[in-house]
From TrEMBL:
Cellular compartment(s): Cytoplasm
GO molecular function, one term: translation initiation factor activity
UniProt-listed GO biological process terms: formation of cytoplasmic translation initiation complex
Protein name: Eukaryotic translation initiation factor 3 subunit H
Role played: Component of the eukaryotic translation initiation factor 3 (eIF-3) complex, which is involved in protein synthesis of a specialized repertoire of mRNAs and, together with other initiation factors, stimulates binding of mRNA and methionyl-tRNAi to the 40S ribosome. The eIF-3 complex specifically targets and initiates translation of a subset of mRNAs involved in cell proliferation.
Coiled coil: 217-261
Keyword hit for Calcium: no
Family: Belongs to the eIF-3 subunit H family.
Keywords linked to the UniProt accession: Coiled coil, Cytoplasm, Initiation factor, Protein biosynthesis
Organism: Oryctes borbonicus
Amino acid sequence: MASRGGTARRVPENDTTIAYVQADGLAVMKMVKHCHEEAASNMDIAQGALLGLVVDNRLEITNCFPFPKTPDESMDEDEYQLAMMRRLRRVNVDHFHVGWYQSADVGNFLSSPLLESQYHYQTSIEESVVVIYDTQKSSRGFLTLKAYRLTPQAIELYKEGEFTPEALLKLKVGYENLFTEVPIVIKNSALTNIMMSELAELVPEEEGSKFLDLGTASVLETQLRCLMDRVDELNQEAIKFNRYQQLLSRQQQEKHRYMQKRAQENSARAAKDEAPLPEEDISKLFRPHPVPPRLNPMLIAGQINTYSQHIAQFCSQSLAKLYITQGLQNAKEINSSP
């Protein structure tokens, strides 16, 4: 998982709000290339460091480099990142660490390792963001690049390290307010825009216009399978929590019966002018059961919500395409009939 090493330019204490993220086209293309290469080779998650600087309330991403993928455990990721930034500094490239990026597939980026990594980044590099690139959706023609930051409630929750139901209720933390999305814009130089305009004129007219593609079964099937897996995981977490509640209720009943029996024995001894039984530590006799952490179920619920939103959006678009193609087919049949 991403580490948090590196030198960063900090914003002043009274101005820590990042209004939006501005990414250079070159940095975006590097991220896209790295993520698709990892997805095509071994279906692994691609991760890398983001470099840039902070200008007023704007976070500029001007460069990036991937984290090493090597089985050699002797390599220190922090040392690798520092060495990369030193070399970039020598060639006059922005070398301030402003966050990291990760590839994702629809909603599976929401996980405990990502939360932990972003917590370390944001507590050491105040203005840092995590950029999520969706390889599957982008491969179908929809560039999906989103930047996220942890909310103050999520940082406080992780700082305390208590993921019990009481802690979640106290801080009012749910999967809806774990992350806050920061708007991201892509900016190219004037020369790059001129070149892209010339390239657009070279693209054949029939290319890039297949908006009525009805081959959506594979995408919908993949998302439904992922949704079913997440629902099964959430069901297992619910079973664990229900079992904990049953054990807690049974322990409370046993404790109540023990205290009643103890009171009756002391009353009987008092009636015989005997000394009461010595006080015993109830907490040692009835040790509390460990509360199952609620962080993982909350993250799974967030993944289910993301998959559901994508499926609803995807199905609505597919239905619209079906109705449009049905109208076109009916018009074609009417025109072709004598």
